[in-house]
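2024-03-11 09:14:02 INFO receiving multi-entity request
2024-03-11 09:14:02 INFO entity count = two
2024-03-11 09:14:03 INFO echoing inputs for audit
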Amino acid sequence: MSDIAERVKKIVIEHLGVESEKVTENANFIDDLGADSLDTVELVMAFEEEFNVEIPDDAAETIVTVGDAIKFLEKNAA
Amino acid sequence: MFDLTGRKALVTGATGGIGGAIARALHAQGATVALSGTRRAALDELAAALGERVHVLEANLGDKDSVEGLMPAAEAALGGLDVLVNNAGITRDNLFLRMKDEEWDSVMSVNLTAAFRLSRAAVKGMMRRRHGRIVNIGSVVGSTGNPGQGNYAAAKAGLIGLSKALAAEVASRGITVNVVAPGFIESPMTDALNEKQREAILGNVPAGRLGSGAEIAAAVVYLASNEAAYVTGTTLHVNGGMAMF
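2024-03-11 09:21:47 INFO inference complete, emitting structure
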């Protein structure tokens, strides 16, 4: 697992208070991890802070699973 | 009770009668306050009177760029923001049939859109800190209407809807959003009324007198406090009984 994937999962576990086994790349934040829409906004804010990137709204809307976040950040994080 | 020591507050329209009173009251409870307004000299004067724990941030809330620059400036000056008081407001009264688009737009932009933009910017940091207080200063006419104030009444009523929607969204993050709705308050504007006008107004106020800025400020202090953590999405009317809801 990449360093980015590791950090993304850590943020998701901490923020949503879910067990680490549940945080797979296919896990959907809302359907599988119990996030509400505000949680997803907060997760994006947390990713922005952790990886020092700006995630525009249209990109944020496409980040619905843990894997989506990892992919986006692998491509865009410095 | 209502101790605000260590809290960081931004008050817009801080040079006005009510805004100044709010800034003084928050400061007296221990908060560090950022004073925002358009009149630099008046802001500096209030800051000097308050002494320590004060920052001055000039901003024109009718200007989009100025509004968008205000929150980063406030958070930088204060080191975060706990309390946002959207108090700035203007009037451009006219009979509805004669109201110009410009009169409508300018009142909407300062009284409602600026509150939207500042609240949107403030909530980000408040969510992170799991604590925040937004107090929007409305008006009794937002609930009763008033001839000649279609724009002002609409903007003030708009603040109530905005506050309820935002309150529902962020309540789980320890953030409350409320409105304080003043009735007739002593100000340079009401000082200019003649005896007859004054009597006509007071005839509708069961308390038989105008309110003071300090009485509005006290309501703001309460809603900004830890004690009001369970109060959100509400409108606190401070009007001597002139309208009861």
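2024-03-11 09:21:48 INFO post-check: The mean pLDDT of chain A is 93.
2024-03-11 09:21:48 INFO post-check: The domain at 3-76 of chain A is CATH 1.10.1200.10 (Non-ribosomal Peptide Synthetase Peptidyl Carrier Protein; Chain A).
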